[in-house]
Amino acid sequence: MLVSNILSPNRAPLGLGIEIPIRTIFRRILEHRQITSLFQPIFDLRTGSILAWEALSRGPKETPFHSPLDLFTYAENNGQLFALEQICRAQAIASVGPLSATQSLFLNIHPRTIADPDFTPGTTRELLAAAGIKSEQITFEITERHAIDNVDLLQKTLDHYRSQGFRVAVDDAGAGHSGLTTIAVLRPDFIKIDMSLVRDVDKDPVRRALMETMVIFAEKIGSRIIAEGIERKGEAMVLMDIGVHYGQGYFLGRPAFPKNEAALNIRELAPPRIRTNTRFACSIPAGSLAKPVPTIPPDTKVDAVQRLLSQKATTQTVVVVDNAERPLGLVMAHSLDRHLASLYGRSLYADKPITSIMDNTPLIVDEHELVEAVAQRAHARPAIKAYDDTIVTSQGRVLGTLSVHDMLQALAQVQVEMAKGVNPLSGLPGNVALEKEIDLVLRRDPRICLMYADLDNFKVYNDVYGFKHGDQIILLLARILTWAIGRHGSPGDFLAHVGGDDFVAIVDPKRADRIGKAVVRCFKRLAPLHYNPEDRKRGWILGKGRDGQQRQFPLVSVSIAIVERPCHGSTLQSLGEVAAQVKSYAKTLPGNVCVRDRRGPREEQNPEAASH
């Protein structure tokens, strides 16, 4: 029931034929603080970890104000929005429970509320102190559905709150009044994309293009994208493929109390193209590179910290921690020297606690976060912090620090390994990667299913049309295989380019036939387009075979062999031998074919037992 239909003169049923005015119900909710907070997780779509929880308020179930839309619409229409938001904010902070050093709480704030002179961060900081939460762990989420009357005033207000450590998110981007101009002026830390743009992003190329554009736009202004309203697996997969930073929605996690702290299984969601390209990304966890660092309590004097750093020639960093060894701030030697080297720096700061000049918003990451992701976040920092260390935590406690130099060195090493393991033409993993993946599957799964794809009559095509066109045919097959596995395969599938025109995929046995048929059908339709009209019409070209004799050769076709074996007792060599047998049999058949080996172990010397 919408509030617009139950304004204050009307009454709401209370049961047993009794009715009371709507305004009375609302007043009681405020007086008795009858607000319940639910928490919906916001996930990092690169790592599966939880970035934050958004606090969502609900009124009492037995009243017309259980719905947040009705609750806040009535409050706004009756001048009670500020009072309601105060209660909601206090309830959320008190009930969210513990947050790790890398996690935060999103609090919804109306633009009019945050610009109200009575709204000051002081009250909120008192609530945070009581709950053991730092201001750096709070993000004010400003909805863009409401018109912002004075953007300049709001910008100045937000800059003030940012100086206190709070972060800012713009909600409902793409469905609001002010659009990209407001975002560009406010420069929020997070841009939450409205569900109207997320819905069916996997089916609508226009929505996908808009989302890709928003990711690029956000990164250029130092923001991060949060896609709201993800309700299907297909939507989540495409958003990950695009490179959207964070996601929220019923498919990933519903609002709940107490908050749900389970991470996402990224492997089950990542599209095959992402997995084949990112298996060789910098999968080194930050914790493995973290180096020990001196820690100090917050009341340590600045002069004492300078002496500590001067005594440790190998250390240029100190982390300020609380009693539980959780990070409060970072002190870099060059930053400390800059403060003390000013005209009155030493007399001003020497006897003050280190909290007066420490960086209270350093980059803090969990030990499991990948170095590549950490490097991206470090790169997005202000220029003055460009070379500061990153604090690495384990279960919220300081594990050590990670320097920019160590990150760059690790990334460079991985790039070298990638160059060794990736096919230079297709960009797909090569032989070394395939061997490692097969070895993993043989140790983990009950069965393994290999798909071996090879081109027929390719040498003649290469000789007649040239290497450049030959490469285009190979790339065509690579794209078709990638598409077919992504469309019909499973999240654990893996595709490798093992050289020349040979491709091998590890696929779900139940979906192998569907993938093979899709590849054959698509290649049969597209490959002829790589011939000139005369050859395409004839259906053959004149060329020399391996025996040196000139004759007619059919157009290039693809032969696919599918081999399924139990992992127990199988080896890389035995699988390769069986796959080669079935592929050889497939190549004796005319045209584009997909053959599945249906022989038992005793029949493996008889390839003809394989069937289409």
How would you characterize the overall build of this protein?
The chain is of the alpha/beta class and about 600 residues long. It has 3 domains: about 35-60 and about 85-260, EAL domain (TIM Barrel, Alpha-Beta Barrel); about 285-410, CBS-domain; about 425-610, Reverse transcriptase/Diguanylate cyclase domain (Alpha-Beta Plaits). Helices cover about 40% and strands about 20% of the residues. Helix 7 (about 180-185) links the parallel strand 7 (about 165-175) and strand 8 (about 190-195).
Percentage of β-strand residues: 15-25%
Strand order of the largest sheet: 3-4-5-6-7-8-9-10
CATH fold call of the largest domain: TIM Barrel
What is the average of the pLDDT values?
A: 81
Subunit organisation of the chains: single chain
The general outline is globular
What's the topology here?
Blueprint: E1 11-15, E2 18-21, H1 22-31, E3 36-44, E4 50-58, H2 68-77, H3 81-95, E5 104-109, H4 111-114, H5 121-131, E6 138-143, H6 151-163, E7 167-173, H7 179-186, E8 190-193, H8 195-198, H9 205-220, E9 224-227, H10 233-242, E10 246-247, H11 266-269, H12 272-278, E11 295-296, H13 302-311, E12 317-321, E13 327-332, H14 333-340, H15 345-349, E14 364-366, H16 371-379, E15 390-394, E16 397-402, H17 404-421, H18 431-444, E17 447-456, H19 458-465, H20 467-488, E18 494-499, E19 502-506, H21 512-526, H22 533-538, E20 540-544, E21 550-554, E22 557-566, H23 572-587, E23 593-596
Parallel strand pairs: 4-5, 5-6, 6-7, 7-8, 8-9, 9-10, 11-12, 14-15, 22-23
Antiparallel strand pairs: 1-2, 3-4, 3-10, 12-13, 15-16, 17-19, 17-22, 18-19, 20-21
Helix pairs in contact: 3-5, 16-17, 19-20, 20-21
